[in-house]
Automatic annotation (TrEMBL):
This is Peptide deformylase. One of its GO terms (biological process) is translation. It catalyses: N-terminal N-formyl-L-methionyl-[peptide] + H2O = N-terminal L-methionyl-[peptide] + formate. PANTHER family: PEPTIDE DEFORMYLASE (PTHR10458). It comes from candidate division Kazan bacterium GW2011_GWA1_44_22. The active site is at residue 142. Keywords: Hydrolase, Iron, Metal-binding, Protein biosynthesis.
């Protein structure tokens, strides 16, 4: 079911999420809700706290629009449960980020260029992988949500945030 996405003024977004203890029907429902909500939102990632569930779960996916000149490769739907970033590169890359919980606000955020992630997959098996680029950025952004951190918290000051006029 498509859920309402909480916005920056929600106290739930500032709380630390709890680990998933077992993959039961409630967790499977949460994952389904996250995927459906993400796909209806126009975003590339969504964490459980953003729909009011304080569980360490997030989903992400990036499909290039047709006729896009964007060189970024598609990222298939990925579901991470109890994710941990186990290794990070020293090199930081600044790039634009936005957030479904902070609508129409953007900022240039420094993130680690390369990360290694370990998590439980939807099948109950541990997965571990290294990634760079947009996928690494999305994972770091969504992992922040699990700890009650919004991307705007990573700006030096709110004057660095911006919007696009239509």
């Amino acid at each position: 079911m498509v859920k309402k996405i909480l916005t920056y003024n929600s106290k739930k977004l500032r709380e630390k999420s709890q680990p998933v203890k077992k993959l039961d029907k409630a967790v499977m429902r949460l994952v389904k809700d996250l995927v459906e909500t993400l796909r209806c939102s126009g975003g590339v990632g969504l964490s459980a706290p953003q729909i009011g569930a304080l569980k360490r779960v997030f989903v992400y996916e990036y499909i290039k629009p047709k006729d896009s000149m964007d060189a970024t490769p598609n990222i298939p739907l990925t579901i991470l449960i109890n994710p941990e970033i186990t290794k990070v590169s020293k090199k930081l890359i600044a790039d634009e980020e936005g957030c479904l919980s902070v609508p129409n606000v953007f900022g240039r955020i420094k993130r680690n260029e390369k990360i290694t992630v370990r998590a439980l997959g939807i099948n109950g098996k541990i997965i571990e992988f290294a990634t760079t680029g947009l996928e690494a950025r999305i994972i770091q952004h969504e992992a922040d949500h699990l700890d009650g951190v919004l991307f705007i918290d990573r700006l030096n000051n709110l004057d660095e945030a911006y919007t696009y006029s239509m």
